[in-house]
Amino acid sequence: MKRILKCVRCGREYPVDAPRYRCNCGGLLDVALKKENSDDFSSIKDVWRKRRCSNKAIDQSGVWRFRELVYDFNEDEIVTFPEGKTNLYKIPSALLDVDSAFVKHEGENPTGSFKDRGMTIGISFAKKLGYKMVICASTGNTSASLAAYAARAGLKAVVFIPDGKIAFGKLSQALAYGAKTLQIQGDFDDAMKAVQEIAAKHRIYLLNSLNPIRLEGQKTIMIHTLEQLGWNVPDWFVLPGGNLGNTTAFGKALMELKEFGIIEKVPHLAVIQAENANPFYRAYKNGFKEFEPVKAETIATAIRIGNPVNYEKAKRSIEFTKGVVEQVSDAEIMLAKSEIDKLGIGCEPASAASLAGAKKLREKGIIKKGDSVVMLLTGNLLKDPGATTDFNLGKLNIPEAMPNAPEKIGNSPEEIEKRIKEILGER
């Protein structure tokens, strides 16, 4: 498979190993795959399945197992934990009132979020190109993943985070893994602007989702999910929308799977944004005629982004899949999160936007009762324990919530026995 960087706006091409993130015209870049005569995808599903029996780290990885559609590296060049061995859970269909519903839990990755899928290829690429330092802006998950993979690769890591706008579960990871962490006086969009300028000025490899190489790893969320479904393509794939990297990657994965004859049907993508961090939703509502950044604010810190860098490519994904964009309130996000948590699965707030949005689309009749739906959970429950405890302590002022706060009881056998009997339903 031949790979080049190609501008999605003007079509200009660059070598795939060129250290650049935008075209000269300002457009975003894709890693374009060009099938060569020796490429044969007729039995690729069997190849991918058989690799699961291998004990090699690259075959155990839910990213590198699909390497034909990711990147060609020598095995010793790959930096992996391994990642991507995440579960697809069937959940009660009544929760969404559809025939079949699933959640794909990317919070089961090594650092607790989907970012590991992109970071394994991004860090491997940085090391191959001879970089000594990597950088990113982050609301939390990217910084945690970058720090871990950089440490494993022996690279220096610098992360820019918004001042006071990051969950401590995520911040603790960046600090623990040794990244130099800089809290900028501003929001994520300010941090994103700063790292682009720094990466351009110095020889530092940028690993936000603006980097098209990183998104090649995130494509495997879609590929892995379809494999887990036995290649029975669902009607809908619902995901949160922040910087729109996954929206871009999923659309690209589906284009390639369809082009190479691996699937015949394409699911609709439904991208869900928080209603106070909703520039993509606003653009969708005006037919993508205008895009205006917003000042983002939401409890779902992972999608608290007002000027997503991948807008141009995410728009393409929605159009290709005949998808939709929806918005949900913070209250709807936290109520949906509570439902997921109570299944014993758990997730961070941004993940629950998937279920909250799917519910809204079902109420509107856009998702039909007979549809099959997969919802993406992007991060682990412990990424933002503060939001979970505040919800269950009743501190978020959500009238519909059913908090599960700790109870204080006396330290006597009689009082403990009495309370246990009450819980058991005994008098």
Describe this structure in words.
By secondary structure, the protein is an alpha/beta fold. The chain has a domain at 88-110 and 215-392: 3-Layer(aba) Sandwich (Rossmann fold). Helices cover 37% and strands 16% of the residues. It contains 14 helices and 13 strands. Helix 3 (115-128) runs parallel beside helix 4 (141-153), helix 3 (115-128) crosses helix 7 and helix 7 (212-228) packs across helix 8 (245-259). The longest helix is centred in the middle third of the chain and has 17 residues, at 212-228. It is globular and about 75 Å long. The model has no long low-confidence stretch (mean pLDDT 96).
Summarize the structure.
By secondary structure, the protein is an alpha/beta fold.
CATH class of the domain at 88-110 and 215-392: Alpha Beta
Sheet/helix structural class: alpha/beta
Number of contiguous helices: 14
What global shape is seen?
globular
Portion of residues in helices? 25-40%
Give the averaged pLDDT, no decimals: 96
The count of β-strands is 13
Report the CATH topology name of the domain at 88-110 and 215-392.
Answer: Rossmann fold
Strands in their spatial order, largest beta sheet: 4-5-13-10-11-12
Low-pLDDT residue spans: none
Following the backbone from N to C, one meets helices and strands in this order, namely EEEHHEEHEHEHEHEHEHEHHEHHEHH
Please outline the helices and strands.
Elements lengths: L1 E6 L5 E3 L13 E6 L9 H7 L6 H4 L27 E4 L8 E6 L9 H14 L4 E5 L3 H13 L2 E7 L5 H9 L3 E5 L3 H14 L3 E2 L5 H17 L7 E5 L4 H15 L8 E7 L4 H7 L25 H10 L3 E5 L1 H12 L7 H15 L8 E6 L7 H8 L20 H12 L3
Parallel strand pairs: 5-13, 6-7, 6-9, 7-8, 10-11, 10-13, 11-12
Antiparallel strand pairs: 1-2, 1-3, 4-5
